[in-house]
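Database export, one record per block. Field names are fixed; values are copied verbatim from the stored entry.
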Amino acid sequence: MASHRRPKQPSRTRVTVLTTAAAAAVALSSQAANAAPSEKPSKDEVKSKVDKLYEQAEQATEKYNGAKEKQEKLQKEISTIQDNVARGQEELNELRDGIGLAAAAQYRTGTIDSSLQLFLSSNPDDYLDKASTADQLSAQQVESLKKIQEKQRELAQDRSEASAKLKDLAATRTELGKKKKEVQAKLAEAQKLLNTLTAKEKAELAAADARASRDSGERVDLGNTAPASGRALAAFHAAQSKIGSPYVYGASGPNSFDCSGLTSWAFAQAGVQIPRISQDQANAGTRIYSQSDLKVGDLVIFYGDLHHVAFYAGNGQVLHAPRTGTVVRYESINNMPFQFGVRI
């Protein structure tokens, strides 16, 4: 006979939980429906963020330049050491050949001396001690063996130095790659932000930048400030000849530049070699802490970490390669945080 049990009623606790969950779901749905969509950043906000990213990219650029300069220096040093090792090995071979010929001659006459046999077989240091005491070798042979020992020590030292520098070079290349990626990432992030702007907003920013990138010295009142020196003036004139050239990170001319690339290139045209990166250029001459004491051709260092450098152009203006997306141009010295000048 079939059982006719009453269906089990849900417990009061379960009903309460389900009711609370349903109410919460309804509330969340209502909030989601009524929530205002996130506001798009304004043109000025985008520009501020982009400028900050460009500044960070320039900081990374100077570190990239430093790693690149170190790499080039290490490569030259390693090449020099390797050349020295090759020449030293040739000299060592010649010395050994000379001793070998002497041994062969003595062997043919049946008079090869025991100390020479010892040298040819194993330890020259022990051999020399014994040979000097027993007077078993001629003075010429002793001198030849001493030269061989000295040359062996030199070669061992050179090879050890080359090995250390090769490890340093590998680490520097790794650092160079990291800094390059960091620069590229900052620039890509800046471009992504710029892409959020409308065509009209982009045009407005481009127009403002075009006004800043004045390509004629006639439109900038440089006053009549005296030059720091004849060579500083020549370097400044070289930089002036590149007004309108694009900023490219890591570039040092002659067609594109970053900030320190422009200053180092310009001084090179005046016959003066200065360091490649801004932090090193900051220590390349006499520091000038008052803007009123600056002269045309002085370097001007900006930002607390010294990552930007320009030429003082006179009348409160600098000539520099500002950042990605700009060209070599004049700009007010007050547009960036001034640290000090450097007179080369």
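Remark 1: DSSP finds nine helices and six strands in the chain.
Remark 2: The longest helix spans residues 43-108.
End of record.
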